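The freezer alarm interrupted the setup, so I double-checked each line after restarting. Inputs confirmed:
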Amino acid sequence: MPRLRFWLLTAALTISGCGGPYPQSTLHPRSDFGRAVDHLFTDIFWWAAGVFVVVEALLVIVLIRFRHREGRPAPKPTHGHTVLEIAWTLAPAVILVFVAVPTVRTIFATAGDAPADALRVEVTGHQWWWEYKYPDLGITTANEMHVPVGRPVQVAITSADVIHSFWAPALGGKRDAIPGHVNRIAFRADAVGDYSGQCAEFCGASHANMRLRVLVDADSVFQAWVKTEQGGPAAPATGSLAARGKEVFLHSPCLACHTIQGVSPGVIGPNLTHVGSRGTIAGAIFPNDSAHLASWIADAPSLKPGSLMTRMKPPLTDPDIAALVAYLQSLK
Amino acid sequence: MSEATGGGLKSWLTTTDHKRIGLLYFWTAFAFFLVGGVEALVIRLQLAHPDGHLVGAETYNQLFTMHGTTMIFLALMPLGSSFFNYIVPLQIGARDVAFPRLNAFSYWVFLFGGLLLNASWFAGPLFHAGVLNVAPDAGWFGYANLTERQYSPGPNIDFWLLGLQILGISSLAAGFNFVVTILNLRAPGLKMMRLPTFSWMTLVTNFLIITAFPVITVGLLFLMFDRFFGTHFYVREAGATPVLWQHLFWLFGHPEVYILILPAMGIVSDVLPTFSRKPLFGYTVVVYSGILIGFMGWGVWSHHMFSVGLGPIADSVFAATTMLIAVPTGVKIFNWIATLWGGDIRGTTALHFAVGFIAMFIIGGLSGVSHASPPADLQQTDSYYVVAHIHYVFFGGTIFGLFAGIYYWWPKMTGRLLDETLGKVHFWLQFIGMNLAFFPMHFIGLLGMPRRVYTYSPDLGVSDLNLVSTIGALLIGLSILILVANLWRSRTHGAPASNDPWGGATLEWGIPSPPPPYNFSVIPTVESRLPRWRTERHGPMKDPPARPPAPIHMPGGSWWPIVAAFGLPVMALAPLTHTLWVVFVGAAILLFGIYRWAFEPFEV
Amino acid sequence: MTHAVAATHHTSMGLDSRKMAFWAFIGSECLLFGSLISTYLVYKGRSVVGPYPHEILNIPFTSVSTFDLLMSSLMMVLALAAVQRGDMKWGKIWLFSTALLGLVFLGGQVIEFTEFVHKGLTISTNLFGCTFFVLTGTHGAHVTVGVLWLLTLWVRALQGKLGPANAMTVEITGLYWHFVDVVWIVIFTVVYLIQ
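Predicted 3D structure, all chains:
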């Protein structure tokens, strides 16, 4: 049955000309949490489809069969029918029992409890980017979460400012990031891949620009990533453009907001210690390349409305920006 | 006869005639409906392609906020009110509502509140900002703590909260009025269980209004104190929680959903019997289902909050109550179909819209069941799937129902019939348009596009679906233009309507179209649920004579409702402009209006 | 003008329409105060800085105000009875006494609020301040409206424009006044007595 529904939906999408892939689809679950929700939705979908067909068909049949015709005798003034009323009160009630029982079972199964050995990740929503901390590994990063395939992950979600909602559809349902509350989800990813997601709760001007990626890595890849992240920032070679970029960084307002381990202490914006190793910047909306980095540094608000990273005053010169870009890219 | 029948601006400003107030409600709400529709079209044009550039993020956020706020508070609710006003007194055999001046007050407060909200579009320069800069921009649901001064420093949210407070006063005043009118002003013999279904649903709706609106009033009061007086009702740092707002808002917000849908259900329950020439099947069950929906509407609010993390037990309880509410809703649908069964169905435009209501509302109801299930909802909430759902309920449901009401009662309200051919073109365009616009949204949401985003990436694979949706929205726009043309055309070219163009069973069809100021030359005595039809036990009643046996004087107009109402937007200017003395001016106007109103000689 | 709408003299439920509307209004007000009181309870004990309720609430003082408000309800009953039997002399006295006791209550509230501000509790100090002042302030605003209403009736009685024919007006005023009084009993219990 799930197969058939999948093909139905795919057919509908193909007819409409959409090919895929769908990196943010809820219909292609890649974790135990995602699959549990998908199974439940599949059940409900079929009940709903059945009811839809029966009731709409009934409506169409009635409209055709009893449409006005000349000479039709006056209708019999029926006022009601007790047995019928009872029947169509019970019918939906019974169907709903079939929906409610798996619902409650799934609620408790997906309540966010993970085994004790699960990898713990703390997610904090900010306007408009995501901060990830791995308390057991001593890692802080932004927007791109790395988790190992096949191992349980416990995600604790909160917010530093307004309410956001953490949503990586392939890995399961969303949970709100609420200041002063901690929400938990738990999942075990079952396929290596790059899954996109984004903030689902309206959170101000750049809500649309608060995207995220979850990279599910093979265990060895994940271990290597952990190792890099745990190390300090790369030191630029003396005399290189990157070294000049570090000087620019140290004399710019950047350091007030961004941490580079051992270099600057700011905590307002994302931690940049290993920013060069990330695939995207600015809330996972732009690829991490020289051109995007340069224009981002020069004028973030024009790329991301409302961005708290304001246009720099006085503006940095182009050579300074180029040096800064080289430095940031060197922070692998 | 008094000025109530005269023409001229003054007679409209001072009117206390429920029929004129009904028309004022209609035209005002319809104008706001067009404004909200234009906002929707800009939204859809922006989203027609990925990375759209028609408007910026800030403008887009104002557009979707005002679209939601306008459609709910300034279009759908008051379109319902226009029928409450015009039709309910006629259906219950009354000469007016219980409190005609309070009724006028409700209308003027609604008008001023709506104008204040929409003034925000142009008020930018007054706040050293550009035009299109200070309209509300935190969503119609205005979740705290985004709405706190810290995160929304501009006057945007001030406009929103003050506008909603004012509109709440209008709704509450109307709520008391209609509850009393329906309970107390029924014609002799018109027992509660003989009341037309539309009047019944009006009663339930207004009960919901008078109980639900105080809750959002308190929520908005807290927000107002937070923004203006430095309190901390939604501030985490002070030990409070922004989730309090969500509870207060949805405690109001879910009954509000039924406030929007029950009048449409009432209209459908009146239209179907007329055009199938059969009594409503299971009248008692339909009425009790409506009452039950009203009661149960109070116990389901947290289903808007499944992603908040209230815990598995709370989620299970609210899932169960939410699913339960599907039962009385389903029962209504089966009874409507059974009403059509065995009938002699005349396919008038009104019937098309009533049947369209059933067909579309089913889809909205079924997708509703899918997010009554909390785990499934975690993938659906705040995605376009929910946008599809609410539009099947509010557009496919409420709007189709209200439009059925327009085509059904327009001849009664204006004395002119609407053109049936144009009407059917309107129906089919709207029907096709809405399905093109809203059905793809189910897929858009399931494929991972959140709602309330001003742009989306082409990577998501939802670009074509979005384009289809935009084309559908443009078709809806076209269909509404046809409705406008039809309404306009009817003023001069519409065929004159007889007392009873449809063969209706209820009292409003026994009097002239439009009715005289006093409605009924003689107050009728009602002996059955379908007084104008032959039933097993009763012959059709005799319609009231064309001329009253003795002159009937209706109360004249009054200036005081509009004066008192005007005090409220003046008071709202004080916090907007941070000038304290203005609040005293506004309060003085309000109190003066109320004082003169209370002691003017007015025959009620 | 001849008599207007016949239907309003006879009502379907046999209850005066104004009185019925007022009951509906009171129902609505219950939800208003219900939301305010619930918020107070939800936020009770969640203030992160003082002053806290037990440090600042003066129960003996407020008990006197509460007694005062209760007595004003008694005056209201006497006023209505007097008006209904056409005894306008006592009607005026009782109406004025009701308003006067209302004013005394408001005076007590002014003194209480001033004292709290002196002791460092303002509306923005902590959650207790927010919830306390907004709850009791909303109630105080209701009492103020009631006092203005009672004084209006009293003045009209002095002018001879209020008589037994207006008993329903006085009865509705009484409904409002008693409701406001009952709400205070709940607030007094919830805020002052159960700490």
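Quick read of the result. Chain B touches chain C through 51 residues (CB under 8 Å).
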